[in-house]
Write the structure tokens for this entry.
Amino acid sequence: MLIRLICCFALLAIVQSPKAAETDVVIDTAERYVRLQTQGSPGKVQVTMGKLDVSRLPSCTAHEAFAPPGTRLSGKTHVGVRCLGPNVWSVLVPVQISITGNYVTTARPLVAGQAITAADLATATGDLSNLPTGVLADPQSAIGKTLRNSLGVGQPLRSDQLLAPLVIRQGQTVRVVSAGPGFAVSSEGKAINNAAEGQVAQVRMNSGQTVSGVARADGSVEISF
């Protein structure tokens, strides 16, 4: 009799309840989604799933994970899992996403408008999920650009804090190239605004006409037809 009782308890421990199994499926669905979405992250990703209880929800045979609107897949966040059938419901699964990698910081105090050199930058390693969005991972992407605002030493450097160097300055004489299928014509005019490479530049031609084109790295303005 004692042996039978032991066997029964052992069987109960092995055979998982349907609701417990459902919870595991939901958490596994959310975890696989997180790992897929963070595959291209610039660093080592560590995912820790939180606890969840779906015992009061109707049974489900098809699950789909999703990111709720405004969700950032880093740090302490949530991933949604919805049931596609036979019942319809959705839950939020808590998850902690840590991304350890390199990021760019200032090596010394920098002032607004300063052109950045390699000596102005340093590289640090840490949890990228605790840093603002847009922090740079490669110092080369900042060198040659100018700062929008002043920064103290050791500050993480974000892409939105940088301005591309100007290739066209207001008042300078610029070459305007009009190009189309089978032809290219160039003329000169005065720049009305400052422009970095790829930005729109306005030019007042010698005829008095104002035209708009794309600023190129060589300081010319290209108008395409």
Remarks:
- The longest helix spans residues 18-37.
- The two ends are 92 Å apart (CA to CA).
